[in-house]
Amino acid sequence: MTDLLQATPRAAKDGVEPRRRNRSLTGEALALLGRSPLVWVALVVLAILAAMAIAPGLFTNVDPQRCILLNSRKPPAYGSWFGFDIQGCDVFARTVYGARASLAVALLATLGSTLIGGALGLVAGFNGGIIDAVISRVTDVVLGLPTLLGAIVILATLGNTGGGVLRLALVLSLLGWATEARLMRASVLQIRNAEYVRAARVAGASSLWIALRHVLPNAVAPLLVLATLSLGSYVGTEATLSYLGLGLQPPTISWGTAISDAQPYLASAPHMLMFPSLVLTVTVLALVMLGEAVRRAFDPRSR
Amino acid sequence: MKQSRFLVGAALQAAAMVGALAAGTTAGQAQTSQPGWVSVSACTPAGPLIPTNTTETCGSDVLQPILAGLVTNDAKTGAIIDDIAEAITTTDNKTWRIKLRNGRKFHDGTEVLARNFVDAWNWAAYGPNGQSNNDWFSVIVGYGDLNPKAPKGEKPPVPATKAMSGLKVLNDHEFQVELKLPVPVFKSQLSYKAFYPMPDSFFADPAAFGRKPVGAGPFQLVSGTPDTGYKLAAFPGYGGPAKPSIKGVDLRIYTSREAAYNDLVAGNLDLLRDIPASKLVADLWKRDLRGRAVVQPRANIQALGMPYTDANPHLLKPAIRQALSMAIDRKAIVEILFNGIGQPATGWVPPGVEGYQPGACGEYCSFNPEKAKELLAKAGGYKGDIKVYYAGDSEVKSAMDAVCNSIQNTLGITCVTSALSDNAAFRSYTRSGKVDGLFPSNWTMDYPSIDNALVPLYSKEGTSNRGAYESAAFDALLDKAATEDSSAAIKTYQEAERLLIADMPRVPLWNPAMTVGHSPKVRSVTLYANGRIDYSALALKE
Hints:
Helix content of chain B: 25-40%
Distance between the termini of chain A: 20 Å
Strand order of the largest sheet of chain B: 1-10-9-8
Oligomer: heterodimer
Number of strands of chain A: 0
Number of strands of chain B: 21
Largest interface: A-B, 42 and 38 residues
C-alpha cells in the first residue's frame, strides 16, 4: 500500500481532521475491524480451529483411528463429549482430527485460486489488448462452468487413485480462479491510469516494475476480501465432495467423510451426524462473518 | 454485497447439484408398475447375459427368471424336481439317459429339443469360446478334446472337434450323457444354469443373445439395458412347474441399496432383497416396513479373500492368515452391525448345505487376541499397512471397516479400507493376481451340496478361485471324492474342508441371513436357499 500510505498522511497534516491520526486505508480498516465484537468472536473460533488443525493432540488424547465396535453408537457422555459412531470411534477425536484435512483443502484451494486468478487478472488488466481479450474470454468460460459440477466430473474421471488433500485443492483451484481474475482485472483497470502510475511511466520505470510496485499493492485489497469469503465456501465444497464420495478418502479424516459415513445412521445414531455438521457450520459461519466484516471495512462507501 | 450474493449463489448451486445427483439414481423409477407387475430392485450385470458365462449375482438375478433347465429346486424343501426333464435315469452314475417333456417352448416359439441341450453344452465346453462355466463340463467324456492343453506360456491349439463324444442325441426328446467317472450329484448339478438349453438362434448370434436372452423359463425379456433395468413379462407358453400368478417383473437397477430402500419405504418399489445394514441397526427397518420385513436363512458365506501370490509375501505365510482370522471379532460385528441377523461362520461351508459340519474351522475362526498375536509374532510380524479392497458401489463398507478395525486393534497392524470404483473394477482387480491385500468374497451356493462350496473356490482350476490358491493335497482329495458314491464323497469333501485350516486360503467371516422388505401390494414372499426370489409363489393383493 505504499502510495496510499504516503498520500493520506499529508492530507491529515493539513489539519482537516485533527483528531484522525496518521492512518492509511488499511490502518483504518484494521481499526474498524478491531472495534467489531463479531470479528473477535470469529477470530477466536478460527484460532481454536487452527490450533486443532496444527496440534490436534492438545484437544484430545484419544486416537481417532482406534475404533472399538463394542462402543458402537454410544451417545455423548463424560469423557466422550460427542459420543461414538457406528464403528465405535470417538466422534470428538475424529472431529478434532478432521479439522486438518478440511481446513488444509480450503486454505490450499483459496491460495491456489487467488494466485492463479490474481496473476491472470493483473496481466489482463495491465496489458489490455489481445492478451486481455484472450484471458477474459477464458475467464468467462471457466466462470460459466459450475465449480461443483466440474469438480465432480474431474474427480469421478480420475477415480479413487489417491492424492488426497493436494489433488482436491488443485482441482478446486483450477475451477475457482475465474471470479478472482475478474475482480483483479477490474481493480487493475481502475488503477492503471492513476496519476502516480502515469508519473512512474514518465519517469521511465519498466512495465514489470510498475505492475508489481505500483499497481499490484493497490489492487490487491478486494482480492483479499474475496479470498477470506471463499475460504468458507471451500470448506463447504470439500465437505460436499467428500460426502458424495469424490473428495477425500479414508483413512483421511475430514468433516465431509464423517458426515458421509454418518448419513445412513441418521435415525439410529443422530449424534454421529450432528457434531461434525455443527463444527462444519460454525467454521463456515466464522469465515463468512470475518470475510463480510473485512469487506465492509475495506469498502469506503459503507462507512 | 456482491460477494455475499456470489456465496449464496454457490450454495444454491451446490444444493441443486446434490438434488440432481440424488434424482439421477432414481430418475424414471418413481412411476408405479403396471397392474399385475411387481417391481424388484436389481444391480447392473457385469457382462453380457449369457448363462454359461455369468457367475455373478447381478447378472444371475436377471437371467434366472428367464431360464429353465432340466431340473429345478423346490423353493420350500430344496428338493430337486423335474422341470424340462421328464425322466433322468442312470444305473451306474456314469451313463445318464435324459428324456424331455413334449411341448416345452422357448420364448421365440421353438420347442426345446434334445439338441438344444447338447449344442449348448458343447458350445460352453469348447475352449476357444472362453466361457467361465466351462469347467462344469469337465466330467463329460470328450471334454479334453475341446480343451487341448498347451505347454506353459503358449497358446492352446485349436481343438480338432467342436463336440464332446460323451453327448449323444437319441431322438428329438432324448439324449444320453457319458461321464468320465461316476458322479452321484450330477442330477443336482443339472439345476445350475450352465446346463440350461439354448435356442437355435443363440448359436447364430451369441452377442444379440447376450443383450436379449431367450430362454424357456416362466418370464420372457421384453426390453431393457444394463443401465436402466429389465422388464420381464410372464411367458404365456410356459408349461413348467413354476408358473407365476403375477403378470410381470420390473427389475430396476439401483446404484445404491440405500436409494432402493428409500424407494421401498416410499412405496415406489415392491421388493428389495438384502436390506442395507444401516437399516438393520436398532431394528429401523422393522419400524419402517411394519410387518413387511422377512428374515430367512440363506446358503451363503461371506469370507475375506486373500492373494496366494507373491503380490504380498506376508500373506503367503499361513500363520499370518490364521492370525488375521483370529483377530476378527465376528460375533461383535454380526451382533452390532447386523443387529444379530446372520451368524458368525465356523467353517467354509454354509449351514443348511449337505455335508455342512459345524465348527469345521475350529479355534482358528474364533476371536482370540492372545493366540492371534502369538501366531503373528511367530511368523515374524507384519511390516507395513494391510489393505482391504471393496467395491465402492456395494454395501460392505461398514462391515469391512469393522473387520479392519478389529485386525488393527488386536494385532497393531495399520489396516486401511480402500474403495474401488465399482463391482466391475473390483472383480477385475481381485482376479488379476496382483491384488496385494484382503478383499470381501461372498459365495452363494449354486446347488446346496458341499462340493459346490469347495471346488469352485479352492481347487486350482476353480472358476471363482480369486486368490489363486493352490494345494496339491486338497486337489487330490477333490479328485478322490469325484470318483466316490454320495456318502463317501461327502466324507472326503469334509476331510478336504478341514485341510483348509492349515492354509486358511480365505477367512470365513459370517453366514448372512436373507433380509427382504416388500410393499403392501405383495404377499407370500418366499426365497430359494440361494437367495433367489420364488416368483411363482409371489402373489398380489387385490
